[in-house]
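Reposting from the mailing list since nobody answered there.

I have sequence plus structure tokens for a pair of proteins and want to know whether others read the tokens the same way I do. The first protein:
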Amino acid sequence: MVKLSITKKFFIIGLIMVAAFFAAIGITLIAARDINDTFRDFVQKEQSLLISLHSMHAFGLQGAGSTRQIVVAPNDKASVDFYKKANDEFVKANEEALRVAPPEITAELKNISSEWKDLHKIRLQIQSLAIEGKPKDAIALLTSAETPKWRSFREKILNMITVQRDKAMTTQKQVESLTYERMLLSVIIATAALLISGVIFYLFIFRQIARPIRDLTKVAKAMGEGDLSRKIRWTRGDELGELAKTLNDAIDRLKGFVQSEEERTMSQENIINFLNLLSSASEGDLTQKAEVTPDIFGSIGDAFNLMVEGLTDLIEKVRSSAQDANMKSSKILSVLKEMEENSEIQTVEVRHARGAVEDAAQSATDITEKTRQARKISEMVVKAIYKGNRLVLESMDGVQLIRVTVKAINKRMKYLSERLMEIGTISQLITEVANRTNLLAINASIEAARAGEQGKGFVVIAEEIRSLAERATKSTKQIGEILSAIQLESAGVTKHLEEETKYVEMETKLATDTGAAFKEIDASIKDTVTVISEIDTSANTQKELTSRVILSTEEVQRITREMLNLVKDVSNISASLSATSNVLISSVERFKLPETEKVKV
């Protein structure tokens, strides 16, 4: 059996307690560091990536809506500026996503960046065509190139948002589970270490010091009262064991003395004096010593002095050990205070993390606000498209009416031309009749001249007929000229009406194509409104997710506060141990230690 002094035992117990406390503190700090690192990575990477993807989607929608607004209203400078801003913000969001993205999706984000550049070039071409006054070409390019590419691009971003949102929710659950497990383990280990250390210290004080001193005191009092039947029943390898052995030897020697009456009387006096000395010692006065004489009581005095010296050394060691325990308790209190400060620092870090999450929630709110703005712009575009479509339909109706009217006028002009041709034919017939009448009148004049006097009256009539025939010929000639002029104008009007009819047909076809393009734009805008609603829903989901993260940080703060309270409880226990050490010091202070004074037995 290894013999250890009380000082060494106190030292070993102190080392065990300090090691237990430092182990608990180390485990707690490691757990807090792991939780803080995990939570910081979650906020800085998962949440930032998800917010960047939502921003890319939102700004992509704004770019699509602005492009369609420019096609509808090419002179709207605000839409052009809005598109430029949306493009710049998309590029920034993509760069932020690349900065925080894990390696497995970096290539996909780079591919999205390349596709966005191609889509940006197409949109710039569409905007240039619209601004240059070529809406038909702009709408054709929008329908054939931009819309399919934008739909494919949008699907990729939405798929990435869905995958990242599921991953973020899974990571959040893992962080919450890890936080709870680590904090619970830290609390259990710290509590167990404190309880075990307290129990060990209490058992050591009670079994190794308090109970042996109590037994020694009882035997010494009984010996002082003349009762030599009691002895110390236990053996130890330390100073208290040596003191007990010495006391038992003294009792045995007292029992074995057989003396004469005179010696007995003297012995009784010596015994009385010795018992008085023992009584003083039992009351805590260890300043008195027995003088060593040549007789048998010299051995007893020597044994008593050895016992007092051993007890004095024991009390000194107990006092020193208690002071050492008090000092170590103070050190433990200092360590616990530092642990309390670290817990408060951890609380501040958690508060900062919560602030970052609240910033993420604010970003989600900004995204919601921007989607609402995009929805408002889309609704304005829908109204403009509806108005434009209505105007196109009205213009189509007007053009159709003009077309019908022109056809009717053309038909009337053709009918008029036919009638004019008939009039021309009749005029020619009248001219021929007039010519023949004139010829007949000339012939009649010749015949009347041949008849002489009998034909003079007929000559006058023939002259009148010839005059009427000439006038008729002249009139028919004028009518012919007028008819020729009218036919010439009618031919010009007919040709112009035919050209107008072709132009009206072209305008009708253009109006029909414009109406179809407006329908396509209307369908695209409706898809955009639907996607904006989906973004709004996703943004609300993001806000809910960040709210759950905030609740998780509050749970971490609550656990940290509980750990802080536990540290304070441990500090109270250490203070109680320190108080116990002070009580022990006070208990041994009642013993008066010997200096140079001796009492003669």
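The second protein, same order (residues first, tokens after):
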Amino acid sequence: MTSPLTLTHAQLADGTSVLTVVGEIDQSNADDLAAALDEAHAQVVVDLTGVGYLDSAGLNVLFARGTGLELIVPPLLSPVVTVSGLADLVPVRGPEGVAPDAPSG
């Protein structure tokens, strides 16, 4: 069973939208994510730190938005975002503000 998806929208002073996503993103709720992205401004940061699962339906929504998108991904989702090629299309950073595969130290 999919955990409930929570989508919280905020706007920064520079006009950038921030969409914070918590839960699991799959076929049952990918349309909700798409609708939230459609409501966002041209530039949107999607914070996926609270997401524990992202399937192909969710990836397709993010690919469809593409332009103007930036992702914050937790270590759990980093391989999915990288292998899918999404990290080649949009800027991706970890919760600490660095690329999730950047060397530490």
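Reply #1 (J.P.):
I read it the same way you do. The chain has four helices and five strands.
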